[in-house]
Amino acid sequence: WKIITPETQIKNKTISVLISAYKAEKWIKSSVNSILSQKLPLNWNLELIVGIDGCEKTYKSISEIKDNRLGIVRFKENHGTYNIFNSIANLSTGHYLQRFDADDIMNDGWLHRVICSFVLNEELNLIYGDWESVSHDLGEIYEKIGDGSGPAAWKASFFFEQLGGYKPFPCGADSEARIRAKYLSSPESKIEHVAFFRRISDTSLSQDAKTNHDSIVRKKIQQEIRKDISDYEKGNK
What we know:
The protein has 237 residues and is α/β, with parallel strands linked by helices. Helices cover 31% and strands 27% of the residues. It has helices spanning 28-36, 56-62, 81-89, 110-120, 156-163, 173-183, 216-234; strands spanning 14-21, 45-53, 70-75, 96-101, 104-106, 126-135, 141-145, 153-155, 188-200. Strands 1, 2, 3, 4, 5, 6, 7, 8 and 9 form a nine-stranded mixed β-sheet that branches.
C-alpha cells in the first residue's frame, strides 16, 4: 500500500528528536538505532540530538554510531535530564520536537504518525501516545500505560515561545509540562498507538531510589504540581 502523506505549506520539514543520556551505556545504541530506523513522510528530515549528561561511558558507547543525522553534545558535568533537554532543544532546528529517553525503544512508525497528526491538525501543540513497560533485555512486556505520562512531541514554536521549556526538576517534568500546557489552553492530542517501550532498569528516573515514585523528591514535585493546578483553577497563575 502506498502511504499518502498529507500536504502541508510548512517549509521546515524537520522533526528533532532530543535525548538526555546519563548512565545509559547499556541502552543508548539500541535506543538511538530505533529512532534512526524510523521512516518519515516524503520530504521530511530527521534530526537526532543526544546530550551526554556528564557520563563518559555513555559517550564512548554512542560514539560508535556514525550517522549524519545524529549530533552529540557532550557535557562534562551532570546537570539532570530536563536541564540537558532544554539546552539541546535550543540547538535544534526542527519544526516539531520529540523528547525521548536514552533507555527506551521507539516503536516503528511513531514519528510518521506524529508528523501526520500535526500536519492534519495544525492547531495542535502537543502529541503523546501509549507506552509499554518492558524488561531491560526487551524479552518481556509487563503492562501498557495510556496516561500520557511519558515523553511528548511538541510544536517547536509553542514549546519555546509559550511553554518556555521544561522546568528543571530532577524528575516528573513531563507531567508538569503537560499540565502547564493544558492551562495555557493548548490543544493536544493522544494517538491511540504505542509510542515507545520503556525499559525497567535500576538507572531510570522511575526506578532509581532517589527519583522513583516513592522518593521524597518525586513526592515534593507532585505536591508542587498539585498546588500549581489549584492556583491555575483559582486564576492565581
